[in-house]
Amino acid sequence: MRVALYDRHGPAREVLRVVDTERPEPKPGEVRIKIEHSGVNPTDWKTRSGAPPRPMHGFQIPHHDGAGVIDAVGEGVDPGRIGQRVWTYLAASGRQWGTAAELTVVPADQAVPLPDGVSAELGASLGVPAMTAHRCLCADGPIEGKTILVAGGAGAVGHFAIQLAKFFGARVVTTVSNEEKAELARSAGADLVVNYRDPSATEQISSFGRVDRVIEVALGANLQLDLAVIRPGGVIVTYAADGNDPVLPVRAGMSANLVLRFVLLYGFPPEALREASKDITTALASGALTELPVHKFSLDDIAAAHDAVERRAVGKVLVVPD
Fold first, then answer.
1. How many Cβ atoms are within 10 Å of 60's Cβ, its own excluded?
2. Counted domains in the chain
3. Residue 169 falls inside a structural domain
4. Helix axes 156-167, 270-286, angle to 10 degrees
5. Over 80: is that where the pLDDT of 54 sits?
6. CATH no. for residue 32?
7. Rounded CA separation 246/257 (Å)
8. Measured by CB atoms within 10 angstroms of the end CB, which terminus of the chain is less buried, N or C?
9. What's the rounded Cα separation, in Å, for the pair 20 and 62?
10. Residues 145, 253: one domain?
11. How many Å separate Cα 74 from the centre of its chain?
């Protein structure tokens, strides 16, 4: 079978290669998945590049996210799961075998049943972005009836944050940088879309109502706007570390009785992962989650797929293993 892997850190075209290898066999508590689509996220190219540094033992098959069909199960797993369509998350977290392969093995609870009628493309797009969005929205309590500001509503996390927030009964305003992205955010279901470059962005958001929770992709760039629109006692949740670190205005944060939360998927409590996968699947079954524009690459073109994500391609980048 064919897999993509790297055994040293560096640029995609220098370190990624496609090789033939033996099929993996599921260990106790694991399932093996025939991958139809493998999702590529910023964390994948950053880990491959070596920033941030993480240990690598021998080799690494990249990508946490994917969708496919279970074709074998390990000891202790219900054999009735064979043939089940699933989406998966954190496949490569602390493990060598990610989803950039014809077959992968993951713990059984990380292979989540995919509801009937949901495409493999959408299933492979979930994982990192949808789980992150869920935690950002839900870590500080229910959001029904609350007003949520999603920064970067055209990105993958932003897309699913909008749709999950609407699914949970919240009002959603989102910020984008251009009209193309604005249309994606509207299609996702945002109640109000604001170009953050507009001089009146703060006034537009404030006219929508004070914000209870901010889902933030660029804390350093957006903190002043967030402070201007958030309700006293509100929460800013940040999930990305691109750009310069912010200088925190301590007095303004104190005056607002602000909660500032940092989120990274690798450190989620197990119960948060279980809750997120359950809620995401329920939202999928209801039709509340939709695909972003998809850019597909073959396994042989995996370096180009990584480059596309690194260049911030609008939409979702997927790799097709066969």
1. 23
2. 2
3. yes
4. 80
5. no
6. 3.90.180.10
7. 18
8. C
9. 15
10. yes
11. 28
Tens of pLDDT, residues 246-278: 889 999 999 999 999 999 999 999 999 999 999
C-beta neighbour count of 30 within 10 angstroms: 23
- Are 24 and 302 spatial neighbours (Cβ–Cβ below 8 Å)? no
**Residue 168 shares a structural domain with residue 88:** no
| All residues at 6 or more sequence positions from 261 whose CB lies less than 8 Å from its CB, including other chains | 136, 139, 140, 235, 236, 237, 238
Q: Which two tokens mark 146?
A: 């609350």
C-beta atoms surrounding 256 within 10 Å:
17
57 — phi, psi (to 5°)? -110, 95
SS3 61: strand
pLDDT band at 55 (very low <50, low <70, confident <90, very high): confident
Band (125; pLDDT cuts 50, 70, 90): very high
In angstroms, the CA 32 to CA 202 distance is: 49
- Shared-domain flag, residues 108 and 140: no
Amino acid 322 reads: D
pTM for this model (two decimals):
0.96
Same domain, yes or no: 167 and 238 = yes
Range of the domain at 314: 2-125+291-320
243 and 115 assigned to the same domain: no
pLDDT tens-digit readout, 80-122:
999 999 999 999 999 999 999 999 999 999 999 999 999 999 9
Say yes or no: 100 and 135 in one domain: no
* β pairing state of 294-298 and 316-320: parallel
How far, rounded to the nearest angstrom, does the alpha carbon of residue 270 sit from its chain's CA centroid?
17
Report pLDDT digits (tens) over 221-230: 999 999 999 9
pLDDT bin (cut points 50, 70, 90) of residue 243 is confident
Across the range 162-174, mean pLDDT stands at 98
Q: What is the DSSP letter of 101?
A: B
Task: Specify the pLDDT at position 245.
Answer: 87
The verdict on 143 and 252 lying in the same domain is yes
User: Is 306 found in the same domain as 220?
Assistant: no
Task: Give a yes or no: residue 301 inside a domain.
Answer: yes
CATH number at residue 214: 3.40.50.720
